[in-house]
Amino acid sequence: MIAMYGRRSKASLFFIIFLFFISLLAPFLYADENRKNVIVVSIQEEITEATEVLFRNVIKEAEAIGAKLVVVLLDTPGGSVSSVKNIMVMMESSKVPVAVLVYPVGATAWSGGAYILMASHIAAMASGTIVGSAQPVMMTLAGPVYVNESKVINALVGLMVHHARIHSRNTTVARLFVEQNLNLGAREALENHVIEVIADSVEELLHELEDKVLIKVVVNGEEVWQLIEYSEAEKYETISMVEFKGISSANIVYFKPGPQIYLLRFLTNPLIAELLLIMGLLILFTGLKTPGYGMEIAGALMVAASIIGLGVIGVDFGGLLFLVIGFTLMLLELKTHIGVLAILGALSIVVGGLMLIPSGNLWLTEEEMGKIWSSIVLSSAILLSIFGVLVFKVAKAQRRKPVVGPEKLIGEVGVALKDLRPDGEVRVLGEIWRARSLSGVIKKGEKIRVVKREGLTLLVEKL
Questions:
Q1: How confident is the model over 211-237, as pLDDT tens digits?
Q2: In degrees rounded to 5, what are phi and psi of residue 38?
Q3: CA distances (Å), origin 374, targets 2, 182, 218, 369, 377
Q4: Mind listing the pLDDT tens digit for each residue in 166-212?
Q5: Which candidate, 92, 125, 359, 407, has a CA 20 to 30 Å from the CA of 60?
């Protein structure tokens, strides 16, 4: 019996060790599987901070799972210079190569879109698409104003030309995009070495990359990227190399933006941001003049939302700010019991949560993400309901008439034992008290109500 027990213990020990090593290898096996993924994200909008956050989320998840390639489907009239520049920096520093495909047919990569195309590791365009018109424009109340200051133009020319050069593209055409608002179609862009591929779909782009390799080499003392045929790779002394063999059969995963991005798209709309700022200031000043209705809090929240939309503070700091404000308002509701603070606090918590929860659907399926969001919403509703009941109970307890102490007599009804002219005696709650009338003479036997207590004397009035 003892020997049998020993054999079972050894078998269990070996099984545990086996499971341990399997758990160590699982992440690597999972990573190998994810390296067959191609992540596709669609940017068909004006480039704003929302686009920047979306792109950051895509790059982070692609690097986390070791994806093979990120494909950006681009169709934009341009956008914020700062957001465009940040996206370019993210692409250049990404550990996963980024291909930008101007798509669908008829799409444009104007202004900021041209800069993003030039900064991509692989530049592609669909048939019938256009790239160019990269002169900076300043939006004013009177309409768009073209910027012609040499300082700004030269800076943007340098930005465009630099990224074109480190990706082995035509720097002369890149310069003309900014200085002369040059526009090129897909075929012209390919012939002038502005792009590497013409593809009318993601599948066609991957098929075109099948026999190619992306290499980094040193040219004239500078590290540059080149997309070449696989058979020519041996001719180069490469710093790094990304092979695309088998990529046409890769698993294509479409990255779907979450609530964070939709909220940012709403807030970063210039019209919405300016309206929130103007209306928020008006409501804030009105609330300060007429306190007690929560208007000052609502105005402050609108101003906070507007400065996030205008890019004064980042979305991460803005989300934390809204969470702190929300929890503070909920706690203040326990003291004030006006109801408005609880509503505004709950709204602030929801908005802050949406700002801090990043987009992403690569780890879980859409159905699983839906279940998680449903659970979050349901849990939030339950917690808010519990908090609401707690606030109601606390408010009810605080407003309840005292059952002990001097204040318990206030409002009680009694009877006059002697005439009050104005002093006399009354019986209240079975006890006899000295009393003083506040409503003239009160005759013996008439009912009275206690208004106030001064020491051992009750101030009463006739019912």
A1: 899 999 998 889 999 999 988 888 888
A2: -115, 120
A3: 54, 49, 52, 9, 5
A4: 999 999 999 999 999 999 999 999 999 999 999 999 999 999 999 89
A5: 125
The confidence band for 374, taking pLDDT boundaries of 50, 70 and 90, is low
Cα–Cα–Cα angle for 389, 395, 399, nearest 5°?
A: 145
Tell me, yes or no, whether 331 lies in a domain. yes
Cα distances (Å, whole numbers) of residue 248 to 38, 209, 280: 10, 8, 52
For residues 249 and 143, membership in a common domain is answered with: yes
Residue type, 31: A
DSSP 373-396: HHHHHHHHHHHHHHHHHHHHHHHH
For residue 317, the model assigns a pLDDT of 77
* Claim to verify: residue 364 and residue 270 sit in the same structural domain: yes
User: Which residue type is seen at 385?
Assistant: S
CA dist., res. 173 & res. 179, Å (int): 10
Domain assignment present for residue 9? The answer is no
**Enclosing domain of residue 365:** 262-399
**Sheet of strand 98-102, all strands in order from the earlier edge strand to the far edge:** 197-198, 122-125, 98-102, 69-74, 37-43, 251-254
User: pLDDT grade, residue 370 (50/70/90)?
Assistant: low
CB 418 within 8 A of CB 425: yes
Does 104 share its domain with 57?
Answer: yes
Does any domain span residue 190?
Answer: yes
199, 229, 254 — which closes off a domain? 254
Q: Which two tokens stand for residue 441?
A: 């003479």
Looking at residue 224, what is its pLDDT? 94
Whether the pTM exceeds 0.85: the reply is no
CB neighbourhood size of 7 (10 A): 9
SS3 349: helix
Contact of 156 with 136, CB cutoff 8 Å: yes
The model's confidence at residue 404, banded by pLDDT at 50, 70 and 90, is: very low
Among residues 354, 378, 399, the one where a domain terminates is 399
Q: Residue 74: name the closest of 51, 114, 101, 39 by CA.
A: 101
As given in the structure block, the two tokens for residue 226 are 């080149």
Neighbours of 422 (CB within 10 A): 15
Sign of CA dihedral 42, 48, 54, 60: positive
Classify strands 130-132 and 108-110 as parallel, antiparallel or unpaired.
parallel
Helices (H), 106-214: 112-119, 150-166, 171-179, 186-191, 202-209
The verdict on residue 442 lying in a domain is: yes
Task: Answer yes or no: is pLDDT of 143 > 90.
Answer: no
For residue 438, how many other CB atoms are within 10 A of its CB? 16
Bigger pLDDT: 303 or 386? 303
Please state the domain count of the chain.
3
Q: Mean pLDDT across the stretch 378-402?
A: 60
